[in-house]
Queue: 4 jobs
Job 1
Amino acid sequence: MNTIIKYTFVIVISLYAATAVAEPADSTSQNVNELKEVVVEGRRVEQIKDGINIRPTKLEKDASFSGWNLLEVMQPPTLIYDPRSKAFKDMRENPVSYFINNIAATQAEVENLPASLIVSVQVLNNPSDPMFEASAAVVNIIAREYDYGGYTILSYEQSFLRKGGYGSVFSKYQRKNWTLQFLGFGSYSNVPGSTMDTHSIYRFTVDGNPLEIVRNSSTKEVLRKYTYFNGAVSSTLRFGENNRNLFVVNLVGTHYTGPKQRLEGETDYSLTGEHSSTINDNDGKYTAPGIYASVSFNGDDGKYFQIKTGVSGSFNDNDYKYFSDFNSGIQTFIKEKAFTPMFVLTFSKTFSKGNALYMMLDNYFTRTIADYTGSTSAKNTSTLGVDDFKIYYSHPINDKLSAVAGAYNGMIYYGTGISDTRFYYHPQYFMSLTWRPTRVSQAYITGGIDRKVPEIVSINSVIRKTDELIEVSGNPEISPSMASNVRIGYSLYSGSKFSLSASLGWDHTDRLLVNDYIYHDGTILSRYTNSGSQDKYSLFVSSNIRLFNGKLTVSPYLNVYHANRGGLTSFDWWTVNGSVNVNYIPFKGMRLSSYIFSPTSKYPNGDGYSYERKIGFIISASYKYRDWFFELESMPFSKYRDLVTIQRSHNLYSRTDHHDKQGRAYIQASVRFSFDYGKKMDIVQDLDTGIGKISGVR
């Protein structure tokens, strides 16, 4: 095996400029005025309605340069953070929705929020306040705001060896109760991809006799080229008494000139002993503009009312070509246009003793016109409609016990020029009971029923040929899956020293959606169909240990689950994965951190079971001295099952900001250097999979 060493040298230059003629003032948010900058360590974490409030220590803020960086340093209790995906989730596996001073925010806004402005961080579960838009898990950052001022951030990254790069601009300007914000992003890539080796087994029944086809294939991606642009302009006006009402207008747009992709492969078949060489070419374009507006009235009498409306469109153009030794060539041109108006109506009322009723009507309609020409010739006009009605009721039984019950009832209707319109009713019911026996702990039990509707691609009747053996289509006769779940959990957050969260869950799914492979005249039709049921049992344990007056934070995490499935793909498997995140602040401005993860899973293949192991280790060091911030991050190695490449990457990041004595000039600049290398230039993945089970002749 030849050893190829690759080096990538990346330079990122970011320029930040801002102007402010007033120092940040406390926001008019209902929670900000109660919070002080002076932090008492013993009161770092305290209970509030629907969750907990965490005050970052001065030590943590001195070691952070942005809102997102501060969240990484704080490691908020009851949340799980994965630095690989740069994402938080809660113990109930819900993704986190972000808010700044009770206003919905993107991750980019959190990443660009100066850490020095943050007063506290609220972590909420199923909050009853309608301002949080019925989100299951919320991080609400309480921050001081400028009465007048703003900033603009320009960044660009270039990879010289990988022939790719990206740039972005983020600008925010605030004048009293009006905020104007712009986020633009662009990237391009022209990089050969990786090689994938696959061992696949197809099993069928022909005239009552079992038939097995073994396919060994190797595919190399020799071209992957694209250009991507995305932009969004947002205008937010707060008005009314205490600025509790909002008027928001958003303009969004996306343009994607890819992927321009070329795949070259070879395949051997055990059934015929034949060998095939193949070439796949794919060249697609995508453009999608949109405009949205919303107005929200949040009265002091406990009433909340919001109207949100908008329209978006998309224009797609794709050229797909396939050539193999078995045929002279398949070529399909796809032109698609879509038009999607949407309308959302929200109402909430808080009654006496904290009882709250929340209702939301969500409706959107998409009309798509797709034109297939070439080897696949069809005109497909499809209609997708979604009508959802959500209602839930929050009831504080007493000072320690509260309950939330709700229903999410909706209908999806989908039809094409080929198949009749079908209607899918998708109700979801849930109930949550939370008990707070002390000021530093809570326990909960949740349960629900969900009718899961298949995605459009699973029910689209248009057939698309992908190679000489497999055709892929949808299944208009598919039925929604029915899933039920129960989860119990407990969290302890004893001040600044220790926190622990654990949960047990059970999920049951009937009419599972799985891939079905049907042998017919030397071809196999692959489509989603209903089959059998599945049970999944899960355990989550997360902890946060703070030592040496908060200088050392150790955050271990463990996830264990076992699942078994019956039906067309009957098997059972288990997965164990865990991680440890360590942050150490030896002195003011200095932070050392490490992240170790090692998941293990057992899954079925053609010969029984295989095991997957992955080991990862990320370390970083950062230092903030006055107006300068430095960070060095390294991934010494990552070892994967059947992926012999050992990858290493290192990043050096520097950032500075400067305020003049009057606070009128705000300048930031940053630079990043990174490189990585491994044993191979092309990553090779060996996939050993058993596909399908016994199916009948079509």
Job 2
Amino acid sequence: MLKIIRKCALTGCLAGILLLGGCSDAAMNGGSLLRPPRATGDKAAIQDIIAAEAGGSYSLKYPQKGENRSAIILRNENTDHEYALALYATENDTKLNVSIITYRADQNKWECIGTYANTGSGVDRVMFSDINGDKREEIIIGWTAYNSAQKSLTAYSFKSDEVYEMTVDTTYDELIAADITDDQSDDLILLSLSTQETPSVATLLQYSEQDKRPVGTYSLELDSDVISFANIVSGVVAVDTGMTLSTSSGERTGTAQSSSGENSQYAAVADTSESLPEVSAELSDELSFTDEDSDPAHESTSDNSHEDPPDERSAGNQVPVINVTPKNASRQRMRHGILVDGKRSDGTFCTQMIYFDVEKDELTDPINPSYDKTPAGQHINPTGRSEAVFSRDINGDGVLDIPIVSQMNASVDESGTAVCNQVSWNNYDAGEKKMVLALYTVMNVKDGYYVCLPDRWNGKVTARSDAETRELSFYLWNTQTSSLGDKLLTIYRFSEQQWEGEEQNTYILLDIHVEKSKAVLAARLFTTNADDSLNLSADEIQTLVFAI
């Protein structure tokens, strides 16, 4: 009998819980689709089936990335289709196995309807998505290999009470399932980094309900100077302003989801007629970055040796994937796709936009139509930036925004490390074929917050940070003398102990919560007579500062 483990993660439980109702099924697998646990006897029946399929002792294999981190995953796709997925290796076989076990409601029993072997060395991730348009979720499993950095992929589809394997011949470095062809089912988009033999490529695979092989395969060459993928977001990547807005049909509905904790309450959007700033070549803050796989040493066996699977909440190597649902725009005006933020070989970052051009029947990247090179051999990408700031829906309008970084106004003798960078967040207008400004911010990544800049501050205010005191201050900028003017605002970061020792009535306590920290953020406003319109009120500052 398995050792009983009571630890419950935020989005997953250990497979050992199968023997007790210590956590709900929803907690076990992050599945809002799941109903409360059945009796212990059903859990034991699933365990018995796995042992029978394995033919003896076995070790469970845990996915390294993604939302589903259990080796045994329970799914309740609908009221008539409950099933379990088990990932394991047998004692005498080097192959990994996946068994699909379904619940027969008419017979009141569990039954294995398919066991498949894979030559991979580990499990990269497990996803569930309808990729063939049959209104039922497919099982998508990524596999790692000892001798390759790229991963392989298998997919399994249900038909009546049977399951069959779908062919996926393309390998990947990163993967996302999203409907970017607007055919009401998700597409598989596989991203591969360049090698000595091949360039970086995005590959889109389409399936139909009748075919086990892809019915459509599209590819797009990406920037081969990108050495790792830092962030992937899917949703509305562009809006065609040349088309008439229609709200009567075709709207996509749902709730925006994000893994990076953005706050979408800020509604003051900057004038979109502003031109984009020049991109700074200087780093404002040194950030650590890793894209290595986690240690896969979290395995358990059927003989009282269960260990905890990797904790997805602490997996720093995972590429964040954000799904954004559009608001207040018709399907005809929207372009659904993905934004891929990558780290380049020189340590800078850039964004690539990928969406499907229906008229041309091809994948396209409109902001990087071709990768022309400078005489020095550098790829030209207008989104190139020095800071690790990643694409997101920064203002909550349902359209993803692309960041471009530039240094704020500074005198020639100022220290570059104290001068803040300004981030302009931009939408892509598919009708006008250009990026337009949505919002300016100053990002304080180290302390976990950002400040939205009021429109009236544009070009008239600059900012400085003090890494030692953890202060971020905003000043008037004197364009005639190229020097700092009066101070307008300072934001402070205090520990809880420091805050208790402060004269709190001299500050405005900011109503935001910084993730993974018990820090207290507070502000102090200053008044300038040089230009009264640039002063802030206590109420306004609460609408300008948000947690990252």
Job 3
Amino acid sequence: MKKNRKISFIISMLFCSIISIYPLTEYNEYLDSGLVEKNGTFGLNPYLTPSFISGFISFATDDYFEIGARLKVHYSPKELKGFFFNGEMIMSNVSVRQTGGDAAAWWNGTIPWWGETNFGFESRWFDFKFGYQNMVSSTGIYNNLMLDDYSGAFLGYKSNLAITKFFDFQIIMNFIRIHQGPWYTGNASYEWDYIYDSIKEHRDEYGSINTKYEAKYGKTLYMHKINIRPAPWIRFGLQESVYFLGENFNPYFINPFFLYFATGMIASELEDKYGSSSNVGANDIKIGLDFSVGFDGWRVFGEMMIDDANGEYLKFQQPDHPDRVAFMIGAELRGYLFDKYLPLPRKVSNIIKNLYINFEMATISRYCFSRDDNYNYEYVREEYPYKYYPANYALVKNEDGSLKYPDYIEYTEEMSRRINRIGNFIGYKYGSNSDSFDIAIGWRSDLYNVKDSRADYITDRYYEHLKENKKPDRLLKMQLHYQHYRLGTDRDVVLPFYMNEHFYYNLNLYDENGNPLTGEDAKGGTDLRTGFIDTVLLAGDILDFNIYTDLFHFNRAIMGLEMKHVFMWETTLPNTNDSQTTFNYKFDIGIIIGF
């Protein structure tokens, strides 16, 4: 009997490794890899085992075909009590993805990338994690405004400290891009005129802007947060974050006891070195408040964020101070609430206690997450201008062999769609001037053990440890999820011009004769105001049905089958005569072996 089990296990492993299928790899329209699927409670605590190997095959009506594999390993040695290691790698080949370089030459178009690969330590009152990880900032199910894990795993550090069971403190450092270049040791103030002079004098000679500090600046997001718990079922969170350009370790921001809000207000008094570790001017400061209230299977939660926060921005709708704000609200209800308080028949109880329903709404105003005029503050993973439209940013040769920048090319409809994309954002996944609504109903046999959120606060774990552990013998889960989203105007995240959103920008740079204004005449205001969607450019509807079931248990390993049906409708310029709707269907099927 044991011999047959071993043979079955070997055959199953070979079968899984040959087929290489995994169904829950998320992509936006531009096939960015590593995105985290946002479809509700179905994705939390995915399987009964912490380690698994899996893979998938996907088909869609638009000639989309994908095959890929994923390996995730969790190791917590007994000899190093409290320490743990995570490793995750994903590989995928998509029929409609264009590849070049090593991916095309070595992997035949298959893209490998890291998932959550990190190490850390966990105890009752303190924990930390360092490495590539998916991090969120609040207890939302589908969306988090300040920091969202939709963009996948970034190199980062996260720690939690429980001061008491009534307070806990969280620190996050997210290294979105490691600084590439020397540390800047130039003058304290950056000579802006030098940029424009160098464009005129050195563009043809050097093929680039010859500034004092030529480097690919690092992009870093620091965040600290305190959670207040007057009762186990009530939590209020106050959080502050800064997203900045320059060397990744900024002495003014890395100190958790410094308020970013206050540092930004006195930035002019500090010796700014643009793009350096001492710079505090090239930053985007956000403040936020979130809450979660509920117990025994019901919960109400929400989040509010103010972008580029300082005192002057609290004048809502003032023409010279357009606020960048975002809101999220949601609720969840789990069936074991009724099972606990109502005398239900046993068969009915087994069904009801594992049933759940949740919904969530989020909206974000214009101009959030955009700050600088050099693509430096786009809240995306890659440099989209070069990746998706290299013709405008790459040098071309003249007939005599010299280099020059190409003439301006007008955006095509495809390029515009890339600008107004459902993007790879660090914050809210749909970016500025957009909103969304999600609702899901589902059933899963391990619902009692499923966490409320992915934020993983240390005091949440403290109260979870007080619960009775009810691990099911077999995992079965299914979910029907619907999402509606809308994208508005002013979403040029490829080119998030400083002038598009900052109140210091003067719209009246020229007089009535077209001559440039100077001195006091050049100072003015702007007519930009706080606002949410008024003109909808794109609306989408997504309906997906997910199901997973264990197939076989052998020793400590589990083999499971997972399937997903996705129906997508996308409407351009809805509620107009030019409205047009396209439909797409996608089917995923996969096998998972947990161990």
Job 4
Amino acid sequence: MSKLAKYLNQHIIGNVFDRLNILDTYSTDRSILKIQPKLVALPKTTDDIQKLIRFSNQLALRGLRLPVTVRGTGRDKTGAAIGDGMIISTERLNHIEEIDLRGRLIRVQPGLTLGELNTALGMQGLCLPIDYDPRTTIGGLIANCPNDDASARHGGIYHYVERIEVVLSSGDLAQLGPIGSHALSQKISETSFEGKVYRRIDELLDKYADTVIDRGMQRFSGAGYANITRVRNAHHFNLMPLFFSAQGTLGIITDIILRVEVLPPPTRRLALTLRDTKTLLRFLDFVSDLDPRTLKVFDLRIIKETTTHGKQPDLLPRELGEGWLVLASFDDRKLKSSKKIQHCLEVLPVGTFVAEETVDNTVAFQEFDSTILSYLNDSNDGERSPIIDDVYIPRYRFEEFVEKLEMVSETLDLKLALFGSYATSNYHVRPLVDCTSMDGRKQIISFMQQYSQLVKDCEGSLTGGTPEGRIKALPIMQNFSEEEKKLYQEIKDAFDPHHILNPNIKLGAELTNTIRHLRTEPKSGIIRS
């Protein structure tokens, strides 16, 4: 590997490393897996990425294996940002290249984080209205297409990307966006690798027409290449949708044009506690009709567990009991937000604890975020890393899901407190497991099996919030029809015929391989939601 690193360093502006301490740093993401790469590349230009991909592709043509995994800040929770070949990190491709204030368009590199982007846009009175971890890169948002907490109101990242530039598995550069029928005919007639991709995808849409239609009927799932349903319509043909939730398996995004919005008014928040699930659901349904920016719900056991660390929000009463914490936020104009909050207060049961955000208690509302952080980092004996996170549960099955979750909790002897977004029906549980022990790792596997079955029984989706990666792919593959598997495999083959791009996730995930790479030591640093 040292010879490869030296060779590549002679041909790119950026850097390629093979030192063990660096490899170890890039061997984990936010998942429960650890896979040490052979090389870590930090390209500085698009040309660097093209050279790295061409090198990997040329090795594949000779029967040698150096697959490529693209990575931003390593925020992926499914094991898709790690691999045993070459990691290509986009952390140095993090610039804003152009801003069109009049057209509200911005061109950025994929390694720019959401927080950095919105800080820069805020100075111009603009924003990208995504309510997600601010350390996530824009490239990572596209690769995972998360169901962020504000997506019910603002639509999510998919609705804000106008065009992308992509390095294909051949090393060729492609500009992707909607094209008309005449431009499509030209693309299909080309002999280039890009032309072959367009030709093949066009053929697959005809070959698997019924499967594509059936896939379009399945909502709330980013599994496989679900956005094949959005590639062709009566007005245009567009390969770009396939890259949403693709997790770096079809190409590497190097440039992005985003549409942004005017900065909304300051958010107004409401916090309250409710004792039983039926009352909770009635209230949440009422608030949902008011079109909130976010609508989050937390099992009160989460709050109570953090009191041992001195982290109980001052806004809440000292004695919490059983039940739920609801946090609702509105980003309408001041008067409209006030009216919505007043409507919420009017329908609450008598005696309900409630706190409305004011100028005087804004800081106190921030304590809720600190409380969740304490909960996720509240033990020296284990960790609350995401095992299976971001699952979709339909509203009409929420109560049943909560009841059956308690049964799973008792069976596995794990505390499974639920939290998530009712507005997007996207939920999380973070069992406390000791990954350093054999029993703990067996507990992880048992949880994955039983929790996956529970989500399925409640008509939910494991990939309703984020795609499958390595972790969720195992149960997800069982739900695909044979025709779906063939379709997704042929899409992968069209873009990546030698399987050099993140080959062991999505369709390539295997149970034995996943178990082999379960981490055997707690992840260092702070675990975040």
